[in-house]
Amino acid sequence: MAKPRRNVKFPHRNQCGSAEGVYGDSNSIPTSPVKLTALPEDDDDKSLIKESDYEKKKQTFITRTIWTLVMIGIFFGAMAAGHLYILAIVTAVQVITFKEVIAIANVPSREKKLQFTKGLNWYFLATTMFYLYGESVIYYFKHIVVVDAFLGPLATHHRFLSFMLYVFGFVFFVATLKKGHYKFQFTQFAWTHMALYLLVVQAHFIINNIFEGMIWFFLPVSLVITNDIFAYICGITFGRTQLIKISPKKTVEGFVGAWIWTIIFGLGMTNLLMRYKYFICPVRDLGANAFTGLECSPNPVFLPHEYPIPVWLRPMVLGHQTIVVAPMQFHILAMATFASLIAPFGGFFASGLKRTFKLKDFGETIPGHGGITDRMDCQFIMGFFSYMYYQSFIATYAPVTVGDVLETVITSLSQEQQLEVVYGLQKYLVGQGIVNEKILECWNDLLQNGN
């Protein structure tokens, strides 16, 4: 058996890229640079790699499909269960998206030295939600809130309380500024407020849409989803021209094709939803669901109207001079156009944000789909637009509501004047035969005995 040779060094590259000699000295024996080549892989190794990639893609596809079906089931289940469950989902989405976006700018090493950083972020979120949710509850349920002994004072002073809560947070932030960390702290302060405006405030208008009627929530959401699906289908089928550099896979053909299909979907879905009061009625009872239904006088926008057809269009409709259609069918054209041409820029904005911080996804909240923010980037601006459009062109306003009257009586009149209002209203109801006269007598007796 031959003895192993010692002190033998094999050729290899030094740090400068030249090949060293067998004695380790590149100057002693001149050699040419050694060309490094990868060893050829066996066919078995290549097949294993291909099989491994295939299995990963297959598993990702299965995971995405399962969770897509889960999300669809939760969504439609919540819609059938009632408005309260949809409100809970939207609230959860607000909180999670805020958490995901705030986490982008976090620097753990600095947060360890600044113990109040995360606490302030969540405090400002709670303050913002207290203000926004309070405004909605007071507006839509004024007839219940203002007459409650506990909620009444809160409703009266809600805006002042919200302002003071924010001021306390502001003062605490300034008081906790720490030398050497000013830039990080002010960056966190600005980042938090940006997230509150772009996510929490915009998403809150989706809640107002729910109160106005389930159709104003479902249609905007479904339009964005439909546009996203058909943008992908049309893009891989006809796409040739790049739309925007920040999202290289988006094409002009997919953008336009999705617009056309979103309008078609919007017209068909609107025609279906208008037939059910559960969708078109504003919610005044959070206990209602798809099985109990809702009752209301439909908004005129859902009732058929007769419109004259321009002369130049009559040959295209076989000479008909008028057309009967609900005004909502015209409004959905505007909403579908916004969902197709403007809302996607919310997604482009999110893509730019991720590229800035070199992120693939905002989080891993949904297996196979990334974070909640990745799925909701277009929904926020669409919900905001839907609320503004509804309030500007569709909402019907009653001159005076019961809640308005109660609020005026409670906040503007003394207790003696309030009793006079109640007594005068009772006398009127007795005179109309709606209320028995004995009730008025009992009321007077109770007041006298109480005094």
Structure description:
With 451 residues, this protein is mainly α. It folds into three domains: 68-212; 213-343 and 378-395, no CATH class; 415-450, no CATH class. The chain contains 18 helices and four strands. The strands form two sheets. Strands 1-2 form a two-stranded antiparallel sheet. The protein has a two-stranded antiparallel sheet with strand order 3-4. The longest helix has 39 residues, at 43-81. It is flat. The protein starts with 42 loop residues before the first helix and ends with a helix. Mean pLDDT is 81; it is low at 1-40.
Write the layout of secondary structure elements.
Layout: H1 43-81, H2 83-104, H3 108-113, H4 117-140, H5 142-145, H6 151-156, H7 158-175, H8 182-212, H9 214-238, E1 242-244, E2 247-251, H10 252-273, H11 277-280, E3 305-308, E4 322-325, H12 328-341, H13 344-356, H14 372-376, H15 379-394, H16 402-412, H17 415-431, H18 437-450
Antiparallel strand pairs: 1-2, 3-4
